Amino acid sequence: MDREISSGWLMFIGFRAAEDRILAALAEAGYADVTRAQARLLAAIDLDGTRLVVLADRARIPKQTALALVNGLEAAGYVERVPDPSDGRARLIRPAARSRGVLPVAIAEEARIEADWQAVLGARRMRALRRALWDLALSVDPHLQDNSHSDASGAPET
After folding, report:
1. Could you tell me which CATH class the domain 7-121 is placed in?
2. How far, in Å, CA of 117 to CA of 129, rounded?
3. In the chain, where the domains are located
4. pLDDT digits (tens, 9 = 90+) for 49-88
């Protein structure tokens, strides 16, 4: 390669590797029918439900694409549509029975990924990486400002 790889691309490589591992863990646990795009959308759903337009915004995809993904997830039993208690005209997308098994699998794999990365970097560099990534995330995503719960390192709890 003629030029240095950008920091953004390096972060994407790490994200992609983590996502691959999580999807493989889900498939091994019996959730092989979840596509990469559906998994990304599932991860954006609040436990008490999220409006479709918010999901589309979080996933940075058109509303029509989010709708198609939600339709597939609903058909497979991963999500359900329920009335929004704050607006009778609106509907919320919330996790359904089948998706309740997905979250523990994904969280367990995330913990293994963090442990593996810490084994490569060491505890001090891992804490520094998490702090730096958290600072970057806060600077580019205003939605995180309201949802930040941090541990002693200043990074969000995992």
Report:
1. mainly alpha
2. 10
3. 7-121
4. 999 999 999 888 999 999 999 999 999 999 999 999 998 8
